[in-house]
């Protein structure tokens, strides 16, 4: 993990200005952002810091050997009797004018400092540096999470490629008579066979939804697929701690059908066109709500209902990662859709049509933003898949 940690710590340091110090306080892995930025974590109470002189860590004697062996890019000090006293002494040496802490009112991925730890840390800071300014790291942490390093891109591409193989192997095994619950169980088995970790989500694995049964964020049921059904599958596979998020829709043919009915095919083409519309404007500098608006307007212009969620979100260490969102602007309290797209971000594109019991579909692709525009990381679903 040290190579990835070194990449991300360097990236995080580049977000800082002169006189700023970014402090991460954690114990028993309480702040997941330590793992993101430093590629490691601690058992005992620890402070991880970034400033112009590079990454640092104040750790317990129990943890020190781990960092010495596996995180050589960190300047590490050990504390014995008093974490607070040793941290105060080090802060006085560093003498920052501003300290950034991991709290946020807007982005849960940036809100890693518990309220109790904040109060404890504030006392240390006010004692050691009476005039220091304490500010949120949300802006900096959001960008570090969102803009992927080369190693993160490698891991995500591997997860996405494996998800393509996953669907290629799954599709021939699907047939009428299988229940939603049975299909989810097979999907979890297949992910394990491929060496991936399926995200359990809220319902024990991928979403498996028969349109006829109801379209919502729900657990699978014992309802079986019958000919004429649409089946929606939404899968996230984890590889080395990074997750894809790809959804596919399958139509189950009746005995007298060789292809899906025109109505179902029209819905698929509408979604395909909405993805094209979002892809066309997904460029650095574009606010997320403008990308969402392009997909949303495409579907509305064809007479389909309003998209009931955001057109896309970021992926990474979580299936729904933080930072900019491709969603409607809404009220001014919703900050994420107003953030601009930047090169190095990876988004899903999933402008859905939800009309249950009428045809509903989800088609979800994974896309990387580059300086020259977007590029697909997933292999696009070019047509409505069918099974019997």
TrEMBL record:
Residues 155-371 form the Peptidase M24 domain. It comes from the Bacteria. Gene3D superfamilies: Creatinase/methionine aminopeptidase superfamily. GO terms for molecular function: aminopeptidase activity; metalloexopeptidase activity. InterPro entries: Creatinase/aminopeptidase-like (IPR036005), Pept_M24 (IPR000994), Pept_M24_MAP (IPR001714), Peptidase_M24B (IPR050659). Pfam families: Peptidase_M24. CDD domains: APP_MetAP. This is Peptidase M24. It comes from Deinococcus ruber.
